[in-house]
Amino acid sequence: ETIKEHQQKLTKTVTNIGFLETQKHGLLHEYAGIVDDVEKYKQELEEEYGAININIEDGTYTVIEKD
After folding, report:
1. N or C: which end of the chain has fewer CB within 10 A?
2. How far is it, in rounded angstroms, from Cα 12 to Cα 2?
3. Residue from 7, 39, 11, 15 nearest 23 by CA
4. What distances in angstroms separate CA 60 from CA 12, 32, 35, 52, one per listed residue?
5. pTM for the full predicted model
6. Which helix (H) or strand (E) holds 63?
7. Rounded to whole angstroms, how far apart are CA atoms 66 and 17?
């Protein structure tokens, strides 16, 4: 392989890495938004029902007793 072919492969690889990093950045922002939404919803539930643990599998809940 020639130097030119190696350089083209390097350039393509660096471009792909940049694309993946851009995707990663976007996904991290999306993840942070989802976490924020979950926390807000948990707070709404706590305001409505008090301090509870919710079983995500079946929807049941238990009251958290404060000492």
Report:
1. C
2. 16
3. 15
4. 52, 27, 22, 10
5. 0.69
6. strand 61-63
7. 50
Structure tokens at 67: 């000492």
Domain ranges for the chain, please list them: 3-63
Integer Cα distance of 10 and 17 in angstroms:
10
pLDDT per residue as tens, the chain (67 positions): 799 999 999 999 999 999 999 999 999 999 999 999 999 999 998 899 889 898 889 989 898 888 7
pLDDT confidence of residue 38: 94
d(CA 64, CA 48): 14
Q: Do 63 and 52 meet the contact criterion of CB atoms below 8 Å apart?
A: yes
Residue written as token pair 């350089």? 7
